[in-house]
Structures are given as structure tokens and as C-alpha cells.
Design goal:
Layout lengths: L15 H23 L3 H15 L6 E2 L2 E2 L3 H38 L1 H6 L2 E5 L3 E7 L13 H14 L6 E6 L13 H18 L7 E5 L12 H7 L1 E7 L17
Helix pairs in contact: 2-3, 3-5
């Protein structure tokens, strides 16, 4: 029986389409994934960009006709920031006014001592400072307030009692060592003098929690200690009514928007 002849096999020239289809499918899936992980919330992005631009003083990139174009959410957030800044500025203005009034009242109540050069009232970056020459308050080498000086400090206490600001009393000496049994060094003398003034203020009705006594010895001279006049000027007590700490106010937060 004769064998049937085999038909010759033809090459399949369309097999490449299978591989091509697989490649296109994978490429499509790749771009879908890349788009998915790179998509951002446009509203949040604009608010964030506006906040960064405001902080660094730059203009928004979204402009139309040369004018900055803001979304409703950006306009609302900006209004919150502006209102907060206005409140803080008004609060600072009122506090500065109160400190100026305090300095004026101290100058008026201590006018005779200010004119005699025994006392000086000034407004510094820390607050209102009342500087008193130690010779007007204490005998040499002592920390007990002289009777005639107690009335002066009592008058100052009446002015200081009208507010709630913190008060720092700091004692200063010249660089001449003291070395007594009661005061082994100028540290003890300056601290004791500051404490004496603090105790008198408490007796005059100033709340103890507002007061702080500091002894600085001869570490903060205002003049050189190489002359009798300079040493006399450095022996002093400074009473500083401290500027209040600015009230902390949380920064406005933009709305969460849609995820």
C-alpha cells in the first residue's frame, strides 16, 4: 500500500502578532499604573503652592493677564491668614501702649529721684527698666533697705501692681571684692539686695509669682570699674517689667478637600 505523501509545512508569518499584542497589553498596563500613582489632588496642590508662594514672597504661577489667579479655597485660606495677622498686630499694639503708659507713670511717680540722678526709667527690648543706684537703697556692703528708701520703692510698687506683667529684680555690684562673713562674695551681696526688693514688693501686694530675684555680681557693668564714678554707677538694682510673651495662635489650616 503506497504511503500518502506529506504535505509541505508553510511558515506562519503572523506569529509575531501574538508577541506584539502581549507587548502592547503590558505597555498599556504600565502607563495605567504610572498615571495612578502620579495623580494628585489638584485643590490641595494649589493651596500648598499658594502657601509656599506667600511664605517666600513669590507670585503664583497660575496667572491670567498678568494678575494672580486664586481659587476660592486659596482666597478663603488667605483671608484666614490676614485676619490672624491683623489680630496679632492689634494685640502687639495694645501691649506696646500699655508698656509706654507704665514707663510714663513710673517717670511721674519717681520724678524727684529721676531728676537727682539716683534713678532712671527706660524702655528696652526686654520691657520697661527702672534702674536705681544702690546708694539710694542700701548702706555700703549691706542688703537691708534703708527706711527712707522703702517709701520710694512702695510708690514704685503701687504703679507696678496695676498690671500682671512679670517683674525681674537684678542686683549688681562693682568689681571690688567684699569678703565678709555675711557676704563671702559679691554674688551673695547682689542676690541678697535683689531679694530684699522682691520681699518689699510682695509686702506691698505684688503677687509673688510675678517676681524673680537675680544676683549678677559685677558681671554686667555699665561703665568701667577703673574710676570711683564708674564703680558707683555699677552698684545698682534694676527692676525690669518684662514684655509679655506673644500669645500663640494656631495657623489656619486649609480644608481637607476630596481625596
Amino acid at each position: 500500500m503506497a504511503r500518502r505523501p506529506k504535505r509541505p509545512e508553510h511558515d506562519n508569518h503572523e506569529r509575531w502578532m501574538v508577541s506584539y499584542a502581549d507587548f502592547i497589553t503590558l505597555l498599556f498596563a504600565f502607563f495605567v499604573v504610572m498615571y495612578g500613582i502620579s495623580s494628585v489632588n489638584e485643590g490641595k496642590y494649589k493651596v500648598f503652592g499658594a502657601a509656599i508662594n506667600k511664605a517666600f514672597g513669590t507670585k503664583s504661577s497660575a496667572t491670567e493677564g498678568g494678575a494672580v489667579r486664586l481659587t476660592e479655597e486659596e482666597i478663603y485660606f488667605k483671608s484666614l491668614v490676614d485676619r490672624r495677622d491683623a489680630r496679632l498686630a492689634e494685640l502687639q499694639r495694645k501691649q506696646n501702649e500699655r508698656m509706654q503708659n507704665l514707663a510714663r507713670n513710673l517717670n511721674e511717680s519717681m520724678a524727684s529721684f529721676v531728676k537727682s540722678g539716683q534713678m532712671n526709667v527706660s524702655q528696652t527690648g526686654r520691657g520697661v527698666e527702672l534702674e536705681i543706684n544702690a546708694s539710694a537703697l542700701f548702706n555700703q556692703g549691706e542688703a537691708d533697705i534703708q527706711p527712707e528708701a522703702k517709701k520710694t520703692l512702695a510708690d514704685a510698687a503701687k504703679v507696678l501692681a496695676d498690671n500682671e506683667f512679670a517683674i525681674e529684680v537684678e542686683g549688681h555690684t562693682d568689681n571690688v571684692p567684699i569678703g565678709t562673713v555675711k557676704f563671702p562674695s559679691n554674688w551673695e551681696l547682689s542676690s541678697a539686695r535683689a531679694s530684699s526688693v522682691v520681699r518689699l514688693f510682695i509686702d506691698q501686694g505684688i503677687a509673688a509669682k510675678r517676681l524673680k530675684a537675680v544676683g549678677s555680681a559685677d558681671n554686667h557693668p555699665v561703665l568701667a570699674n577703673d574710676t570711683p564714678e564708674g564703680r558707683a554707677r555699677n552698684r545698682r538694682v534694676t527692676i525690669t517689667v518684662l514684655n509679655p510673651e506673644p500669645e500663640a495662635e494656631p495657623a489656619p489650616q486649609p480644608s481637607s478637600g476630596q481625596e
